[in-house]
Design brief:
Helix content is 42%, strand content 14%. It has 398 residues and is of the alpha/beta class. It has two domains: 130 residues, Aspartate Aminotransferase, domain 1, CATH 3.90.1150; 246 residues, Aspartate Aminotransferase, domain 2, CATH 3.40.640.10. The strands form three sheets. It has a seven-stranded mixed β-sheet with strand order 2-8-7-6-5-3-4, with helices on both faces. The protein has a three-stranded antiparallel β-sheet with strand order 9-12-11, with helices on one face. A two-stranded parallel sheet has the order 1-10. Helix 4 runs parallel beside helix 5 and helix 11 packs parallel to helix 13. The longest helix has 23 residues. The protein is globular. Bound molecules: pyridoxal-5'-phosphate (PLP). The site of pyridoxal-5'-phosphate has 13 residues, from helix 4 and helix 5.
């Protein structure tokens, strides 16, 4: 098998991989759902947690807010944003709830999603629409694309004069496709439509410049590709909407005697809880920077690309997107042959120790493989072996 890692990188990749620890019986190919943090990030989080637990008065009253601001500053620089436009929230789900509860809709207004969107996001906007008499509209985009226009044309044809918000993933979960969000934001704004981007897969997979992108709202989780601890998300709000933002969960916002005045201050104190994950976000950025962010993207895309090539060849299926980093980064998805593959995810775990999502897409199934710095050719070879066995098993049953 011809894997694309240049040899001179193998040592550095092996060194980076040593920062993760997986159980011996597990091949982990689902960083896209739950991205485990490397050792340095776990340690940074533990150190903050110990400070918090040892002397809570010192931590909560004197240290937390400056540390929150400093972690936010580092994150804002990393995502190309002004710190004042960013607030930490628990995860993308939380951020999406904030947006859906903050945007005022009139009866008859429409919120436009599409068939690639994340199920929880659909539920969040359905409730917001129902509460205000608005309509949730779902554009049907193709599952296999050749050009950006294949996605843009059906999206725009679902827009009406009542469309108030477009909600779109930066990188989709169900299909692992990088959406042409720059064009969507530009054209939506020309029509006076707000854009809310669901970005958890884009953080680290893509180089972000949220100020330049100028979406109205952008929400993401840092626990996926950035490898920050679980429970680290952010919400980016364009300055023109700061005044309308309402936290989904109301607390003090800031510790007494300070009262929140600006939108982001509402998110600093959300009740007595563990704030250590946010404060370890800088350690996650530093971890990727120490490997080299571009080198990380290049190495993991090369692995995803080689994986995709092998899967397409084994499964004999057409590609979902063109073979280009503009369409996919370190996560790739390939169709399975037609048939019922509903038990495959569990079978691969049981038979080969592989954790990989098998995703239902309309009446088909697909396998989605995530490649991070710890992903080795050997892991993908095991997946190929497992899939070969599964295909043989099915052909014997027919
Ligand atoms: C596209 C997309 N949106 C939203 C989410 C929700 O992210 P979280 O569970 O971190 O809130 C996910 C999680 O996988 C996702 O893939």
């Amino acid at each position: 098998m011809n894997w694309l890692h240049p040899d001179h990188r193998a040592d550095r990749l092996a060194q980076a991989a040593a920062d993760w620890r997986f159980p011996a019986d597990t091949i982990y190919l689902n960083h896209g759902s739950f991205g485990p943090a490397p050792r340095s990030v776990r340690q940074a989080r533990q150190q903050w947690q110990e400070r918090q637990d040892e002397q809570p008065m010192q931590f909560y009253v004197r240290e937390l807010e400056p540390a929150w601001l400093s972690a936010r500053e580092k994150l804002a620089t990393w995502i190309g944003a002004r710190a004042d436009d960013v607030a930490f929230v628990e995860n993308a789900t939380y951020g999406m709830n904030v947006v859906a509860q903050s945007v005022a809709l009139e009866p008859g207004d429409e919120v436009l999603l599409n068939n690639h969107e994340y199920g929880a996001v659909r539920r969040i906007w359905r409730r917001a629409c129902d509460q205000q008499g608005a309509r949730l509209v779902e554009a049907t985009l193709p599952l296999q694309v050749e050009t950006a226009d294949d996605l843009l044309a059906p999206l725009w044809s679902a827009v009406t004069e009542r469309t108030r918000v477009i909600v779109i993933s930066h990188i989709t979960s169900a299909t692992a496709i990088t959406m042409p969000v720059e064009a969507i934001v530009r054209q939506a704004h020309e029509r006076g439509i707000l854009v809310c981007i669901d970005g958890p897969h884009a953080v680290a997979q893509l180089s972000l410049n949220l100020s330049a992108l100028d979406a109205d709202f952008y929400t993401a989780s840092c626990h996926k590709w950035l490898c920050a601890p679980l429970g680290t998300g952010f919400l980016h709000v364009a300055a023109r909407h700061h005044a309308t933002i309402r936290p989904a969960l109301l607390s003090w916002g800031r510790l007494l005697p300070n009262m929140p005045e600006r939108w982001d201050e509402q998110f600093r104190w959300t009740g007595t809880r563990d704030y250590s994950p946010y404060l370890a976000v800088p350690a996650a950025i530093e971890f990727l920077e120490s490997f080299g962010v571009e080198a990380f993207r290049e190495a993991t895309h090369a692995m995803a690309r080689a994986t995709r090539r092998e899967l397409i060849s084994l499964l004999q299926q057409p590609a979902l997107v063109p073979d280009d980093p503009a369409w996919y980064g370190c996560m790739t998805e390939v169709w399975l042959p037609s048939g019922d593959w509903s038990d495959l995810q569990q079978w691969l775990r049981h038979e080969e120790g592989i954790e990989v999502p098998i995703i239902a897409l309309e009446d088909r199934w697909a396998v989605r493989v995530s490649c991070h710095l710890y992903t080795r050719p050997l892991h993908v070879e095991r997946l190929l072996r497992g899939l070969r066995r599964a295909l043989d098993r099915v052909s014997r049953m027919v």
